[in-house]
Amino acid sequence: MKWIVFAFAMFASAVCLADESIYTDQLNNGWQNWSWASVNLSSTAYAHSGKYSIAVTETGANQALYLSTGDQPTGSYEGIQFWINGGATGGQTLQVQGLLDGNSGIAYSLPPLQANTWQKVIVPLVGVGTGSVGNFTGFWIQDTSNAAGPAWYVDDVSLISMPKVTPNLPIYTDSMQSGWTKGGTATINLANKAPNHSGKSSIAVTATKASESISFSHAPVDGSIYRALTFWIDGGPKGGQDLQVNATAGGISQTTFNLPPLAKNVWQEVTIPLQALGVDARGDLDSFEIKDRSGIVQPTYYLDDITLTSSPAVNPLVTITVNTAGTTPISPYIYGINSTDFANMGPGFTLCRQGGNRLTAYNWENNASNAGSDYYFQNDDLMGATDQAGWAPLTFLQAATSGGAVPLLTIPMVDYVAADKLGGGDIRNTTDYIHVRLRQNLPVKAGGNYVYPPDTSDYYVYEDEFVNYIKGFATPKYPIFFCLDNEPDLWASTHAEVHPIPVTYAEMIQRTTSFATQVKKVYPGATLFGPVSYGWYGYRTLQGATDANGRDFLTYFLQSMASADKTAGKRLLDVLDLHWYPEATGDNIRIVSEGDSDGLAAARIQASRSLWDATYVEDSWITGSLGGAGINLIPGTMGLIANNYPGTKLSFSEYNYGGGNSISGAIAQADVLGVFGRYGVYAAANWGIGYTEAAEVAGFQSFVNYDRKGAKFGDMELAVKGEKPAANSVYAALDSTNPKRMTLVVINKTFESTPFNIDISKFSVLSSKAYQVTAGNYTTPLSVPVTNLLDGVSFTAPPYSITTIELKSR
After folding, report:
1. Looking at the annotation, which residues are catalytic?
2. Angle, alpha carbons 487-101-82 (nearest 5°)
3. Phi and psi dihedrals of 152, rounded to 5?
4. pLDDT digits (tens, 9 = 90+) for 209-236
5. Within 10 A of 72 (CB to CB), how many other CB atoms are there?
6. CA–CA separation, 206 and 261 (whole Å)
7. What is the mean pLDDT of the chain?
8. What pLDDT is stored for residue 17 in this prediction?
9. In what order do the strands lie in the sheet with 285-292?
10. Of 353, 425, 630, 692, which has the most beta carbons under 10 Å away?
11. What is the DSSP track for 213-282?
12. Contact by Cβ (8 Å): 335, 702
């Protein structure tokens, strides 16, 4: 029986932590078999080592070997390693997917299996989106042929540890190195004497016809532990050659990288990030190729000192100028979440919203609510088993304020709310359910005779009575904000049990005005948010409302509320509130997912630009509907406000950019917070973030808890020049309580290291501290040095990183 190596990592003398065995003759370390295929954990048909292997016999299409574990941190592990055998037939096409809390992510394809041959496979954890996370719960190996295939076998499965040091892997220095071999179609001289960059020899590449190439092959290498391909190249006496570089993984060509025309008689260093070649997350990197792309015969060129390096490429120096001449206040309420889980996520969050679909049909008198389309339109006790009136919002408010956050509660505006907590599925299956399972919801209690506890024997629930009760828990430090319901543009689908007919423009103004009027009457100091629209189509047409008549909904809403204010003689709505879940895609996947393929990560990192950059055009149906123009969401909406309802603030009470456990998610979250502060957003609350989304939390903490001891970004925004939005963002602020303290958040959005010089006028730096978030370093930030200059600082930001710098002046 043959043994061949399919993928392995070359660590040389690297020092590693201990591997974790998953299967060696049996499942180990608490791992369990959760497969959906016929699996024999003690097969004797084939064994790579020991007595047994795992036999996987498919009884249907797309079946898988699924090995599961409890939540497990992966920061110290490089990848999943196993040996696999195609059995008597071979040819099976399989993919590997990692799981976070049981949810699958990126698919990692394997080449077809070979018959009667054990192949070693390393799947980098970053290749399946589970690198450096805290909630890795297993993986599966799945057939992708859409048919039941022949049996295959797996043995010696383990999580392999991350090397503490990864030495560079030389490819050519005077001769071929480290087991690499040359190939290609051009005429190749490996012992060319002149010109040479160093040593005695270089490689001369001479073409005799168009499109010829030189290639370098190796037994498969884990690309995830290296950063870049580097080499020196000389165009010879003529120069001008047009070349491209390509890499293969498992023998399959990946991404092509074009080189600029070569200079003549000059040695130039080329550094190509492995991500640019599409092999940074492959465990089976096996060749590089440099090829003519001109379509003609090109002159001889020369190569030397070729290396697969563990050091990243380096961008040119970026000079940033911070202007201390003027400041703009940053709203304290932009650092919000739809949760009160401070115990697990730490301090620093400033706004906590109690919202979502549940609140539309919430009955404050007994805490009954209806799940709507989220769960069978069922009435139940999810909001509170107790019948103590107002218990759910009160306990939420108390949790928020005890954690240092202002509460943002929700007032239902629909005609009916839940009457009971009986469960049992869809209430519409109950005869006369409107009167049996619901209670009428009204903005005003006639006569204003408010009592607590409220009368639950009648058929009515009064929202002004609720506000009168809950306002008693407001304080000057912690006022109470209110959302007027939740995503009314979707009521007809999410809450068809209480509002089956799509809402109209006129109805939205009538409901908003009625409820806002009563809230302001009872609690004049209340801050009201509306219309709490779900997204772009809602902003523009109220989800295709029948009375839209070509009118932009937000424009109409703002104009109508301005008119309502005049009639009422006071401001009724304080904040224009929107929800924003980006529609941007990368690799044909929406960025709000948890995936992290290269294209998806790149789209996620750039997506914050749609909030402010009119020149940036994301890949989404929204930009398509705009004729290829940018979204420019915040300035565009601020313009609508200024023109139609001046003085109204802007908020995003729900948003999320995905990638909760990837560095792209951390970068997107941090960048969004910086944008909110810079462009004057009043309030914002991430929906969906939790302690299991470690990277997303780290993005927040770069602003609200950067040293994990409560240190926060400043509250007085400073103007910054010199950013390149596609590659970096820099935010700067002074502290209103300490003018000698400045904070900077520097985001490197590239896969190269970036040196920064940050010039700061009229701020003589006395001391500096810096805290850094990089891939895998989420819970505990890295403490990194910066160089203090006379008027500023300098440092180098590693690839894909967030650095928060605290400066003290003399």
Report:
1. 487
2. 145
3. -135, 165
4. 999 999 999 999 999 999 999 999 999 9
5. 18
6. 16
7. 94
8. 57
9. 181-184, 213-221, 285-292, 243-249, 252-258
10. 353
11. EEEEEEEEE-GGG--EEEEEEE-TTT----EEEEEEETTEEEEEEEPPPPPTT-EEEEEEEGGGGT-TT-
12. no
